[in-house]
Write a structure and sequence with these properties.
- By secondary structure, this protein is α/β, with parallel strands linked by helices.
- The protein folds into three domains: 17-238, Aminopeptidase; 250-315, OB fold (Dihydrolipoamide Acetyltransferase, E2P) (Beta Barrel), CATH 2.40.50.100; 318-384, Alpha-Beta Plaits, CATH 3.30.70.
- It has ten helices and 18 strands.
- It has helices spanning 42-51, 54-57, 72-77, 109-127, 157-163, 182-189, 204-221, 228-238, 318-328, 361-367, and strands at residues 17-22, 29-34, 64-69, 135-143, 150-153, 170-172, 192-200, 248-256, 263-265, 274-275, 280-284, 287-290, 295-298, 308-315, 342-346, 349-353, 370-376, 379-384.
- An eleven-stranded mixed β-sheet has the order 1-3-2-4-7-5-6-8-14-13-10, sandwiched between helices. A four-stranded antiparallel β-sheet has the order 15-16-18-17, with helices on one face.
- Residues 1-10 have low confidence and may be disordered.
């Protein structure tokens, strides 16, 4: 599928670039990523609808907007992926697990797709190299369960500031639990990036919410200025359900699934539904799985592809967000290397020996803006976002 561009200027990869519109003058650069999973067409359809609204852009647009297609082959077949999840590959580049290092091995279709996407992203960054601070990325998705709209973000102050404009829940630090996402790859390049989840895969409302989000994003990124009535209209469309607090959340449990064919989520769970510890949630190989903690269910798996069974999230106090914002702008980072069990491994990274540093390690590093992952059972890797 190729959507006709708004202006003649377009990158060479016309198959991958669904749409490009330029004001012909300097301004913010918005890069939209749609269809990373082939069973999530809402973002593609929303881009098509906006691209056809030429009257909206005339005389009220600044900078550039690009829309990049994700998994083209999976989109053609309407499946999540062909060989492997395209949105879990992005931290394999330049590692031992990079598919390019596997001589003679069959490379998954998604690896080749990722190379094409990366080539287009690199070309956009190169084209706007004199305006890097004004480049914003947004990745549009839907879920396999019913859901209100919400935003996923790597927890940086710049991402928080942009995401805070939208009247939907914000999920912080998702990259610590779901690794290899394109959002993390973009953030590691130093750009602002948000993920928008519009609702269930095939619901019409998911297309409508995606379109509303894009108009609002164009406004908040500085590409256009919406009229007050327009902004209220689009905010009302994506506004959260009454029973879901519009606030920040963090992940407190992540159920990984080795074989999705033997995992079955119990019917009836929607995103943000409160669950108590001990609630029956799913079956795996015939064994009942109960919630290990109380919180809210998040992204329950109701499809046979994917390895993220479900997550449990909890609300984050606005007070701690304010404290973390203050601490991240301070020079307290310089003192971390003096803490027991903490070893500085790079200009922005530390390793923590859990045999020595046992209490509140993740909380402290999260407050200061670090991504925390496990190197092994007794060692954490903390990297400043």
């Amino acid at each position: 599928m190729h959507i006709k561009e708004g202006r003649p200027e377009v990158l060479e990869d016309t198959k991958r670039v669904l749409w490009h519109y330029s004001a012909g003058q300097p301004g913010p650069v918005l890069v939209l990523l749609v269809g990373m999973h082939g069973n999530e067409p809402a973002g593609v359809k929303a881009v098509k609808k906006i691209s056809e609204n030429q009257e909206f852009f005339h005389g009220r647009f600044y900078g550039d907007v690009y829309a990049i297609a994700g998994n083209l082959k999976a989109l053609e077949q309407g499946v999540r992926f062909i060989d492997t999840d395209l949105n879990r590959l992005w931290e394999l580049f330049n590692t031992q697990k990079d598919y390019s290092n596997k001589n003679g091995a069959m490379k998954p279709v998604e690896y080749l797709e990722s190379l094409e996407i990366k080539r287009v992203i690199d070309a956009i960054i190169a084209r706007h190299s004199d305006n890097l601070e004004d480049i914003v990325f947004a990745d549009l998705h839907t879920t396999s369960s019913q859901s209100c709209a919400f935003i996923l973000l790597n927890d940086t102050l710049a991402n928080r500031k942009l995401a805070g404009n939208f009247p939907v829940p914000q999920i912080l630090g998702i990259e610590e639990n779901i690794q290899g996402t394109l959002l993390s790859f973009i953030n590691n390049l130093g750009f602002r990036a948000l993920g928008f989840e519009a609702g269930a895969h095939n619901d019409e409302i998911s297309i409508i919410r995606s379109e509303a989000f894009l108009y609002l994003l164009l406004n908040y990124a500085g590409n256009t200025v919406l009229k007050n009535a327009e902004e209220r209209k689009y905010r009302d469309i994506i506004e959260v359900y009454e029973n879901v607090p519009n606030t920040y959340y963090e992940v407190i449990h992540h159920k990984l699934v080795d074989d999705p064919a033997v995992f079955q989520m119990i019917k009836g769970f929607e995103n943000f539904l409160p669950v108590d510890k001990g609630t029956a949630l799913a079956y795996e190989n015939g064994s009942l799985i109960r919630a290990p903690k109380s919180g809210r269910i998040f992204m329950p798996l109701y499809q046979k592809k994917g390895h993220d069974g479900f997550l449990i999230i909890r609300e984050v106090s606005p007070f701690w967000l304010e404290v973390s914002g203050y601490l991240r702008r301070s020079s307290i980072h310089r003192l971390l290397r003096f803490l027991p069990g903490v070893t500085k491994t790079g200009s922005r990274s530390f390793e923590v020996d859990l045999n020595i540093a046992r209490f509140l390690v993740k909380d402290i590093f999260h407050l200061l803006g670090y991504r925390v992952t496990e190197k092994n059972e007794f060692t954490l890797i903390c990297y400043r976002r």
